[in-house]
Predict the 3D structure of the following.
Amino acid sequence: MSTDTTAPAHHEAALTHHEPDHAAIASVDANSSDVASSSANAHGYRGFALGEFLFARDEYFAYVTWPTGQHVMSVDTFLRALQRDVAWDFFYGIVNFDGVFGTMNHYGTVDLFAGRYNDAYRKAELDHMENVETPVIRDTFTAIIKDWTNESFDPFASPAETGSAFGPKSGNNDAAVTRQRVTAERMVGLPGDEQPRSDESGFPINRQFLDVSQEEPQVNPEPGYEDRVAAFSLKAYLSRSDVTWNPSIVSVCRDSLMCPTTEEYILPIIHGNDRSEWFIQLSDEITWEVEDRDTGRKRATVVCKAGDVAAMPADIRHQGYSPKRSMLLVWENNSGEIPELINSGKIKPQPVDFE
Ligand code: PHB
Ligand code: FE
C-alpha cells in the first residue's frame, strides 16, 4: 500500500510502472467483496489481482503479469476487449484480447490465460492458466473497466466517434461501460420486448448510414394475434446503432439467435469459437483474418462483401476489419450441448462440407 512505510521502496515504483505485486494488492474493494485491488498509482489508476494474475495501467499501457511472465498492451485495445468480455459475460468460447492474453468460457467458470493458445509461449513453457468462478472474474473485470476508463473514452464506440483512452485518470464513463446489451426475448417490436430505435428514444441515424431508408413495414394483425405478429426494418434498426462490434439479439427461435451488429475499424477481440457461426454481410465489406484456434497459425483471409455468407468453423479464431461502418448479421446456435458434441467428435467443427 502506498502508506506502508515498511514496504521496500521498489514496491512503490513497481506499482506505478508495470510490475504490480501481490504485497501492494492486499486491500479489498469495499463495494465488491471478491475484488482485490490496490490504491491508485501515480497516474491515478488502481491495480487489480485475480488469482496469480496482476493488472496495472499507466497513461498508455495495460500491464498483465503472471508467475512466469508479463505482457503489455496499448490501453485502448485492452479496454475495448475488456468491455466486450464483460458485456457479453465471457461470450462463446475464447475471447483473446490479443495473441497472448484472454479468457475461455466454461459457462459457470472461466479460464484466465496467458500464452495458452500461442505456439511459441507453449513451446517455451511460459504459458499460464487459471480457472475462476464466473462471478469473481465478472466483478473484477467490471471493477477494472470502471476504474481504467476515462470520461473521454467509450470502448464500444468507433475510434472516429469517441475521445482518447490515454492519459492520467480523469473522471469515468460508467454510463458507457455499463451499457446493457440488447437481448430480445422473442423479437424486436413485439409487445413487452425490445422496441425499434428512433430519434426520440435517443438513437439518431449514424453518420455513415444517412442513406438508409427509415421506412417501417405496416403490420395489421388479426384480432387476437397482436401479441404474436410484428415486423421491423432491420436496416433502419442497425442504422441507428451507437456501438460497434456488439451483436444484439433481435430475434430468438429456440436456440437460434439472430445477432446483427454494426462494425467499424477492428473487432477488438480475436474470437476463438466453440461452435460454428454464420456471418451474413448485410452491407459494405469486412475482411476476416482466420487462424487456428489453438496455435494461432494462419488459416485464411475471408473477404465478405455485401450479400456474402460465411460459415466460421468451431476450431478457428477470427478477427474482422471493417474499413467503413458496415452491417453484419451473426447467426448463433445457443445450445449448451454444442461444445461437448464437437469436443467428443460427435459433430464436425464445420457446419457444412462443399465436396
Ligand atoms: C464474432 O466473434 O463472431 C463476432 C463478435 C463480434 C462481432 C462480430 C462477430 O461484432
Ligand atoms: Fe466468432
Q: What stands out?
A: Confidence is low (pLDDT under 50) at residues 1-18.
